[in-house]
Amino acid sequence: MAGTSNGEPLIAMSQVNKWFGSLHVLRDIDLTIDRGEVVVVIGPSGSGKSTLCRAINRLEPIDKGEIRFDGQVLPAEGRPLARLRSEVGMVFQSFNLFAHKTILENVMLGPVKVRKEKPAAVRERAMGLLQRVGIANQADKYPAQLSGGQQQRAAIARALAMQPKAMLFDEPTSALDPEMVGEVLDVMTSLAAEGMTMIVVTHEMGFARHAANRVVFMADGQLVEQAPPTEFFANPRSERARDFLSKVLTH
Question: Does the pLDDT of residue 5 top 50, yes or no?
Answer without folding.
Answer: no
